[in-house]
Amino acid sequence: MQFTEIILFGDVQLLLDTTTVYRLARELASKMYGRDLVTMSVSITLLNAVFVLIKRKATDEARKVLNATCQLNFQPMIY
Predict the structure, then answer these.
(1) Fewer Cβ in 10 A, N or C end of the chain?
(2) In terms of pLDDT, which residue wins out, 2 or 64?
(3) Residue 74 scores a pLDDT above 80
(4) What are phi and psi of 75, to 5 degrees?
């Protein structure tokens, strides 16, 4: 996924069905796995997907996405 696709996915998650949100979130996490650093936009998008899945009562899927998100190497926040 390119940066614009990540932002777009983050913006339209509430418009997508549960299966699509789960599938795209897992795909994004898989593509980011093993990278040296993952951007803040990726982490926000994945956490938004977790909240969308929880809102839709898909807690097992939300847990899987959250577990995959926790395995990523995020960039530190620099102020």
Answers:
(1) C
(2) 64
(3) no
(4) -70, 140
Q: 77: Cβ–Cβ under 8 A, 6 or more apart, which residues?
A: 40
Identity at 70, one-letter amino acid code: C
pLDDT at residue 33 is higher than 90: no
User: How many residues are present in the chain?
Assistant: 79
Q: Compute CA distances 65 → 28, 35, 52, 77, whole Å.
A: 10, 17, 11, 22
> Nearest 5 degrees, angle CA 13-CA 5-CA 22?
40
| Separation CA 27–CA 38 (nearest Å) | 14
CB atoms within 10 A of CB 3: 10
Q: Residue 50 in contact with residue 58, Cβ under 8 Å?
A: no
Contact 46, 31 (CB under 8 A): no
pTM, whole model, 2 decimals?
0.85
